[in-house]
Amino acid sequence: MIDEIQRARDAALAVIGSSDDASLDRLSGELLGKKSALAAVKAGLGRLDPDARRTAGQALNEVMAEIAAAIDDRRAQAAAAALAARIAAEQLDLTEARPLQPRGHLHLVTQAWERLEDVFIGLGFTVAEGPEVETDWFNFEALNMGEGHPARGEFDTLFVGRDPSEQAGASGTLLRTHTSPVQIRAMLAQEPPIHIVAPGRVFRRDTPDATHMPVFHQIEGLVVDRGITMADLAGTIEAFTRAFFGEGFTSRLRPSYFPFTEPSAEFDIRRPDGSWLELGGCGMVHPDVLRAGGLDPEEWGGFAFGFGIDRMAVMRHAVADIRDMYVNDIRFIEQF
Ligand code: DAH
Questions:
Q1: pLDDT for residue 40
Q2: Taking a C-beta distance cutoff of 8 angstroms, is the pair 279, 253 a contact?
Q3: From the CB of 282, is ligand 1 less than 6 Å away?
């Protein structure tokens, strides 16, 4: 009988070892239930003498407990394996997020443009804009450069009119050669006092070289109010210089000529090492320009200034050739 119990035990453990989670419940009935081989052995115990019955009964109990434990173990194993499989299936490969991927940044000129806006906003200016395709009137005529004015020749203008006859006269269209036409648009759009800066893209028929591009950027400034003097202009340029370049920098105005300002000046920045840098043009808004903007020059006065944005980026980052900023060579761009 002991042998019979042992055989039933070995057979049961073999079946349990190779069964899956789903079949374990059924198996528990088959191996330990009323119709199991061990139940049959148990039914036969009564035929044994008392000593043999005790030994066989004890062995039977041990084997049944062993089989029940084996079923529990197998069930736990199957549950652990199922959990491991689910974790493996749901696992995210975090190395795919590549957190060290370079992120890119704004274009050098955009960076300079935005910093200039920030500084002027800090000085009390608001930002204005005008169209890149302008009329001859806004770009020249209203700025005191009527047809035949010699200063027009200094601008290598790109005309837009389809018919060559459209290119002449105040109604012709062109790509604006400077941001100064925004002065006129601002005066026509709002009542003084006016404090605006107008950054934007400008165009000139130029062959690209290390210091010139046919498309570049300027920022224009215009202040119109009662009682504006040259001291307001000089003070604003100085405040801008310190705010944008830093405390060690100062500015100066040098007499110059522009058709749209009278008097006119160029302004230079003095670096901490004592060297000078020419930055842009400025002056007191010409009475004819105020009139073109719909303002009475007896009542209102103003100053204006304008300078290049690309040059600010070139200086800031010591770019040797301005064209490098526009050819999209990643080896250049990545440096900033
Ligand atoms: N528009 C001029 C240019 O493109 C720059 C300039 C000079 C703007 C004097 C001004 C100014 O507002 O007052 O060369």
A1: 81
A2: no
A3: yes
Q: Give residue 270's pLDDT.
A: 95
Angle formed at CA 220 by CA 214 and CA 223, multiple of 5 degrees: 165
CA 281 to centroid of ligand 1, rounded, Å: 5
What average pLDDT does this structure show over 215-228? 98
Asked if 316 and 174 touch (Cβ cutoff 8 Å), the reply is no
Task: Write out pLDDT tens, residues 224-245.
Answer: 999 999 999 999 999 999 999 9
Superfamily of domain 108-333: Bira Bifunctional Protein; Domain 2 (3.30.930.10)
Residues of the chain with CATH 3.30.930.10: 108-333
CA 325 to ligand 1 center in whole angstroms: 24
Amino acid at 89: A
The whole-angstrom separation of Cα 14 and Cα 1 is 20
**DSSP H/E element including 67:** helix 50-90
pLDDT digits (tens, 9 = 90+) for 249-296: 999 999 999 999 999 999 999 999 999 999 999 999 999 999 999 999
Could you tell me where the DSSP H helices lie in 91-180? 108-122, 136-139
